[in-house]
Amino acid sequence: MPLTLEQLNAASPGDALALLDGLYEHSPWIAEQALAQRPFRSLAHLKHALALAVRTAGPEAQLGLIRAHPELAGKAMVAKSLTAESTHEQNKAGLTHCTPEEFERIQQLNAAYNERFGFPFILAVRGPRGTGLSKREIIDTFARRLDNHPEFERAEALRNIHRIAEIRLADKFAAEPALGNGVWDWHEKLAEHSDPGFAEKGQLTVTYLTDAHRACAQRISHWMRDCGFDSVEIDAVGNVVGRYHPAAEGARYLLTGSHYDTVRNGGKYDGRLGIFVPMACVRELHRAGQRLPFGIEVVAFAEEEGQRYKATFLGSGALIGHFNPAWLDQKDADGVTLRAAMQHAGLCIDDIAKLQRDPAQYLGFIEVHIEQGPVLNELDLPLGVVTSINGGVRYVCEMIGTASHAGTTPMDRRRDAAVAVAELALFIEQRAAQDGDSVGTIGLLNVPGGSINVVPGRCQFSLDLRAPTDPQRDALVRDVLDALDRIAQRRGLRYTVEESMRAAAAPSAPALQHHWERAVDALGVPVFRMPSGAGHDAMKLHEIMPQAMLFVRGQNSGISHNPLESTTNDDMQLAIDAFTQVLHQLAEEQQP
Fold first, then answer.
1. Is 257 helix (H, G, I), strand (E, B) or coil?
2. What are the tens digits of pLDDT across the range 322-360?
3. What are the residues facing 297 on neighbouring strands?
C-alpha cells in the first residue's frame, strides 16, 4: 500500500525513519533531521524539509552524501551491489544494457570526472518527466558537466540528488503529478515545430509568423478547444485567445497567458509554461462542469522576443493599444516586411486597433513563467512570488581616445579607450551590487579596426541597467553616467551616449501578489519573494491593469534562452495547483 502523510506524521520516530528509508543513498541522517519538522502539510513541505536538512548540514556532510552515491554504470552496477532504488533507476535509463562502446565511454567519463572533482558523477537519470533519460542524453550531460567549476558542480550534484529523492518519494507515496505530466507533454509536442535552419539541427527556434510559428498557433488553438474553452480565435496579430465564460453573463474576466515565440536556439519553457498552466486549469474546470463568478481569458501572445522584427511585445502590446503602424515597414533578414508577413499569414491589419482591451472588464492579469535564473534552484524552492518586474534603461555608447603604437607609447601617456570601458565595467559591477537587486551589464564590447599591437583609440559598448523600482534604476543610471564622465575626464577621453530603450518598472499589484503568496503557502512551500530581472508580457499589461507573476524553478541552474532550459513535471504540477488556488481565492472574493 502507498505511504500517506497521515501515516508518516503519526508514526514513531523510528518507524517514520524506516518509512523514508532509501530516499538518500546510505544517508538516513537527512530524513532524521527532516522528521523534526513534522507534521508535514504536504508532500512539497516534506521535500523542502529534506532539502533544508542537506543545505544546513555543512560542506563535509554534503560531500559525504555525494560520495555515498554509486558511479553510473560503474563497479557497483557490474558487481550488482547497488541499492534497490539505484538498480531500478539505472535499469530504467538502460544503463544495465549498454553496448560495449557506450560502457567504455561511460567508464572514461567516470575516470575523468573523479579525477577532476573527487566525487562520483550524480545525475537524476529518470529525468524531468520521471520516465528516464536516454543513454545519449546521459552521456552528453556527463561530458558537458566535466567543464563546470568544482564548486558549481558540487551544487549541481546536490540538486540532482534532491531530484532523485523527489522521484523516490513519489514512488513511496504513489504520487503521480498527472497534470504536470500533461503540461510537460504539451511542451514537448509544441517543440516539434521549429524554423528552417534550426529544425534540421534539432534546435528550437520559432520566430514571428514563420510556418513553424503558425503551426504552433494552430496546435495551441486545437488544444484550447479540447480543454473546453467556449471560444478560441487567432486574432489580428496572431495571438491565440481562448475564453472560458463566467457563471453569469456580463461578469469580468481574469486575463492570463504568455508568449509562444522563442529566441533562436532557445528553450521549450520560456513563455509557453504561462500558456499551458492556465489551459490545464480550465480543462479541469470544464471536466468538473464548473463555472466561476468570473471568466478566464488565456492569451498565447504571438510575439515577445523581437527576434524576426524589432517590434518587441507586439502580441501583448496590441492588447493595450500599443501597436505602432511604423513597425509594418520593418524588414526581416530576408527583406520581408512585417506588413507582407502579416498579409501572407492571413491576418487583418485593419483589425489590430480593435484588439485593445477595456481594463474595466478585467480583474487583472496574472502570469506564470519559468524563472530564467539560478535563485530558486540554488535555494531548493520550486516557486517564487514576483514582487516587481525590473525597470531598465539601455544605452549604445562609444569611448574615443587616440590609437597609438603599443610598443612605443608609455603607459602613463596612453589614451586607451578600451581600458577606460573596462574600468567602467568594474565600477558597474560594484555599484549595482550595492542595491542587491539592481543589475548592470556591458554586453557589447567592440574595438573597431583593432589590432594586437595598437592601443585602442575607440571602443564601442552598451549599457544595460535594471532595478525593481524606477527611482532605484534612475539612481543607478545617474551614478554610472557620472562615473563614465569622471573616467573619461581623468583619462583625457571623449565619449558619446545614446539611449536606445527605457522601460518602467512594473511592481506587482499587492492584492494579486498576496493571492500568489497565499496559494504558495497553501501548498506547504515557503513563500519566497523576488524581483524579475527579465521583461515579460505582464509588464505591458501592467500599463492598463493590475498584474502579478509566479516564477517556477528551472533546472540546470535555471538557465534560459538556451536548449538546456528545463523544469520538472513536479514543479509544473505545483504551478498548476498554485494557479488553481488563486482561482478559488478570486472566486470567493467575487461571491455576492
1. strand
2. 999 999 999 999 999 999 999 999 999 999 999 999 999
3. 243, 255
Q: How far apart are CA 455 and CA 450, in angstroms?
A: 8
CA distance linking residue 370 with residue 270, whole number of Å: 6
CA separation, residue 200 to residues 193, 194, 215 (Å): 11, 9, 17
Is residue 402 predicted with pLDDT exceeding 90?
A: yes
Question: Which one is predicted more confidently, 81 or 581?
Answer: 581
The amino acid sitting at 391 is G
Rounded Cα distance, 367 and 311, in Å: 21
Cell of 194: 521549429
Q: What is the mean pLDDT of residues 191-217?
A: 97
* Whether 574 contacts 516, CB under 8 Å: no
- Chain segment 147-165, per-residue pLDDT in tens: 999 999 999 999 999 999 9
Residue 318: partners with Cβ closer than 8 Å, 6 or more residues away: 235, 236, 237, 239, 352, 355, 356
The answer to whether 273 and 187 have CB atoms below 8 angstroms apart is yes
Cα–Cα nearest to 138, from 73, 199, 75, 202: 73
SS (H, E, C) 386-419: EEEECEEEEEEEEEECCCEECCCCCHHHCCCHHH
DSSP at 130? S
Angle between helices 273-287 and 178-190 (to 10 degrees): 130
